[in-house]
Design brief:
Shape: globular
Number of helices: 4
Distance between the termini: 28 Å
Number of strands: 0
Largest sheet: none
Order of helices and strands: HHHH
Structural class: mainly alpha
Number of domains: 1
Strand content: under 5%
């Protein structure tokens, strides 16, 4: 969990265009203890995730998976440490 907090802080320093294109610090699965498969490389890649991959990542982070696809993308951005805004 501590490594995820460090990654979230690093990701939170990304803003604007940089948040969309800069390399994200990946988070670790709380279930298996390794970097999450299909973790988005950039903020822009969050928009490219299938809903299934989105659900899988949220599950690995033990985050809420309720709501529509857009709400899940916003939730994932916040879990990663980015602002909730979608481009």
């Amino acid at each position: 969990r501590n490594s995820n907090n460090i990654s979230r802080v690093a990701n939170s320093h990304l803003a604007g265009v940089e948040a969309a294109t800069a390399q994200l610090q990946p988070l670790v699965s709380l279930k298996v203890g390794r970097v999450i498969d299909k973790f988005p490389a950039t903020g822009k890649d969050i928009l490219r995730l299938s809903e299934r991959d989105l659900n899988d990542i949220l599950t690995q982070l033990e985050a809420d998976r309720t709501g529509n696809e857009r709400e899940k993308r916003v939730r994932l951005r916040m879990q990663i440490g980015l602002k909730p805004v979608l481009s």
